[in-house]
């Protein structure tokens, strides 16, 4: 089974190398006025992929911090008690 997993990994690497070789022509990315970036298409795709991962991780950090804080609170036994809600007044009986 482990040989099969390594075969799949090798196939993925070979496909990625083939993709990089086939897309090695330079492309121009124009940003702000006067800002131009010329690089091979593979590097631009890699940069955009990494930027997307970083943005996704940064969006995920607040959730992780909140969950860890809640776990710490639960482990210490400081479970927040619900705020008591005062009862509603009874409606008048008979008119």
Q: Can you describe what's shown?
A:
The mean pLDDT is 87. The protein has a two-stranded antiparallel sheet with strand order 1-2. With 95 residues, the protein is mostly helical. It is elongated, with a radius of gyration of 28 Å. A hairpin with a 5-residue loop joins strand 1 and strand 2. The chain has a domain at 42-75. 60% of the residues lie in helices and 11% in strands.
| End-to-end gap | 82 Å
Order of helices and strands: HEEH
> What is the C-alpha radius of gyration, as a whole number of Å?
28 Å
Question: Order of strands across the biggest sheet?
Answer: 1-2
Relative strand content: 5-15%
Task: Tell me which oligomeric state these chains represent.
Answer: single chain
Average of per-residue pLDDT values: 87
Assign a percent range to the helix content.
Answer: 55-70%
Number of strands: 2
Class inferred from helices and paired strands: mainly alpha
Low-confidence stretches: none
Please tell me what the overall shape is.
elongated
For the sheet with most strands, the description reads:
2 strands, antiparallel
> What is the number of helices?
2
């Amino acid at each position: 089974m482990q040989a099969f997993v390594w075969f799949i990994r090798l196939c993925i690497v070979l496909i990625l190398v083939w993709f990089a070789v086939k897309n090695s022509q330079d492309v121009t990315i124009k940003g702000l006025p006067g800002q131009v970036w010329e690089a091979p298409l593979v590097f631009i795709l890699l940069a955009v992929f990494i930027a997307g991962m970083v943005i996704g991780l940064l969006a995920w950090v607040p959730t992780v911090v909140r969950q860890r804080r809640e776990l710490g609170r639960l482990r210490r036994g400081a479970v927040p008690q619900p705020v008591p809600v005062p009862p509603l007044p009874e409606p008048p009986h008979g008119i």
